[in-house]
């Protein structure tokens, strides 16, 4: 959008130089030409120019439509890039880089193809346009200007002095145009060379920076806590990653790429089938651990035992929906050909959607091949159900579920977890919903201060403690009201006692009491 506005502003600013100035030149030149060659010659020249101009307009391609279509293609390409930047982490977890690369390349090559076609059209149109404007119109003008020179006396257009002046005018005009054209080319060349020097400097800086990064000569932008000496040592070290069937962290620090140390050392072990619940306050390191498992963040110490990256599937709270058909949303990052190679049919995909009560979407949206901007067409709950069906399709060994059931009901949540476990998927859930505790065997709880607890999860006991906690919190909320009532009762009691004491001094006080 900003590029389109900028181009519009530039074109608007060029109206004076492209229209007003040439119109003024035409008026001045026509006035002087009418005085030199007469009104008859001017009328003839106008007829020739108007006729050739109509011919030129007739053969001129619709460059306005071309420009609008090019702006549309460019906007779609920029949107594709921004979409990828916005959802880079989810794409990396899904290993959808090849799919996204194909989407971007399709948009890029569509733009390049259109630009090449427009350039080729401009070349041929430019040749014809230059032939008419510069050569044909110039020839017309020279012929008209030459009439007084050669046939002035025969046509009664004046003495030889007028023809000599006209001949001198034509000669000087040609010399002036040639000189100015040459000087203009020099100035244009200087401008182009200056721009080229600037582009060359930018490209040179890019290559030098890439070489420095390749040789490890770069500096990170670190947070203030990374300046501590111990943290610097941790950032300079590297841990080990060993491929394994289960997941185990052995004294692994959780450190963000900008040097923020979340946990100095973490150790836990999760075997297949030991479903893990991860809880803790925001910013304590829950997502950091999953980024290490997904290979997105480096390991700065200790040893990480984990399966290959393709054995993980990540479902965030707001699932990523790619550009493509309804079918692509479930099989992402696979394509239709890869789906068939796995022996999966559309009926199988429909069955996966039925599990999460989403099977009606196929008929509602017009079939599997419907293409839409799905992140705008679907609600939050529908997106989460699509992501659950995607989990069933890939059937990974481990699934990282980050608040992925926050927008669906308990029945859909139960169906999703039950079916995932039936498929042999070990789930690792980030959620504070008590309804999910019964599906997990282990719990990893962060305290938000750099500590954590890893233990067996007793769902019934934890639910009982949760209910007791809520009951106590409810009672504590009643304390201020009870205190106010107590003060009110004390005040009433004190007033009655005072009234009784006063009543002993007379019958009127007793009656009032």
Describe what you observe in this structure.
It comes from Vanrija humicola (Yeast). This is ABC transporter domain-containing protein. Residues 247-492 form the ABC transporter domain. One of its GO terms (molecular function) is ATP binding. It is a multi-pass membrane protein. There is one protein chain. This protein has 18 helices and twelve strands. Helix 12 packs across helix 15 and helix 15 (380-394) runs parallel beside helix 16 (410-422). The protein starts with a helix and ends with a helix. It has helices at 2-13, 15-37, 39-59, 63-86, 88-94, 97-151, 160-214, 229-236, 286-293, 326-331, 336-341, 346-355, 361-365, 374-377, 380-394, 410-422, 459-503, 507-512; strands spanning 240-243, 247-255, 261-270, 276-279, 303-306, 312-315, 324-325, 371-372, 398-402, 426-430, 442-446, 452-456. Strand 11 and strand 12 form a beta hairpin. The model is unreliable at 178-192 and 508-513 (pLDDT under 50). Strands 6-9-10-4-11-12 form a six-stranded mixed sheet, with helices on both faces. With 513 residues, the protein is an alpha/beta fold. It has three domains: 2-158; 240-457, 3-Layer(aba) Sandwich (Rossmann fold); 463-509.
What is this structure, in a nutshell?
By secondary structure, the protein is α/β, with parallel strands linked by helices. It is built from 18 helices and twelve strands.
Instruction: Give the spatial strand order of the biggest sheet.
Output: 6-9-10-4-11-12
Q: How many E strands?
A: 12
**Percentage of residues in DSSP E strands:** 5-15%
Stretches where pLDDT falls below 50 for ≥5 residues?
178-192, 508-513
Helix/strand structural class: alpha/beta
Major beta sheet summary: 6 strands, mixed
In the CATH hierarchy, the architecture of the largest domain is: 3-Layer(aba) Sandwich
**Count, helices:** 18
What do we call the CATH homologous superfamily of the largest domain? P-loop containing nucleotide triphosphate hydrolases
**What kind of assembly state do the chains in view correspond to?**
single chain
